[in-house]
């Protein structure tokens, strides 16, 4: 057996924060951004992406607009793209990312939404335990 780890191990740049945040999702279709809407739960989160729990499947590559409500922090019409969708019991676990391509991240010029998501990530992170 090979001692090499699989290609999917440690694929995220930042660990995700486990949370149970309500959200509204709208699948964008067409020029006028019409599409179907629904409620979902944000299961885990970081500034680059999130794991959602939805009642129905979404095709990979779908464009979404999310409304996140963390109680103290509300974001409306946050653009996202579906990168994975896996059945999880009676619901679907959908992975989304908040950036379009790696060039957007590598340029160092974060979009306004990524800047706000960084603030949300900082507010959800528990303080370190000292002692």
Please tell me about this protein's structure:
The chain is mainly beta. The chain has a single domain, classed as predicted glycosyltransferase like domains (Thrombin, subunit H, Beta Barrel). 14% of the residues lie in helices and 44% in strands. It has two helices and six strands. The protein has helices at residues 102-106, 112-124, and strands at residues 17-28, 37-46, 49-54, 63-69, 74-88, 91-97. The chain has a six-stranded antiparallel β-barrel. A hairpin with a 2-residue loop joins strand 2 and strand 3 (49-54). The longest helix has 13 residues, at 112-124.
For the record, the CATH class is Mainly Beta
At CATH level 2, the architecture is Beta Barrel
The average pLDDT value, as a whole number, equals: 76
Strand fraction:
35-45%
Q: Could you tell me the CATH topology label.
A: Thrombin, subunit H
Major β-sheet annotation: 6 strands, antiparallel, barrel
Number of domains: 1
Helical proportion, percent range: 10-25%
What is the strand tally? 6
At the fourth level of CATH, the homologous superfamily is predicted glycosyltransferase like domains
Detail the poorly predicted runs: 1-10
Q: What letter string, H or E per element, gives the SSE order?
A: EEEEEEHH
């Amino acid at each position: 057996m090979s001692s090499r780890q699989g290609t999917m191990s440690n694929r995220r740049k930042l660990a995700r924060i486990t949370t149970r945040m309500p959200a509204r999702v709208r699948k964008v279709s067409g020029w006028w951004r019409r599409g179907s809407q629904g409620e979902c739960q944000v299961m885990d989160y970081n500034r680059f992406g999130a794991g959602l729990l939805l009642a129905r499947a979404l095709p990979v590559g779908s464009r979404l607009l999310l409304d996140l409500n963390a109680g103290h922090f509300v974001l409306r019409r946050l653009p996202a793209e579906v990168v994975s969708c896996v059945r999880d019991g009676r619901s679907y676990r959908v992975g989304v990312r908040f950036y379009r391509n790696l060039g957007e991240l590598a340029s160092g010029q974060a979009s306004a939404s990524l800047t706000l998501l960084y603030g949300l990530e900082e507010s959800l992170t528990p303080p370190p335990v000292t002692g």
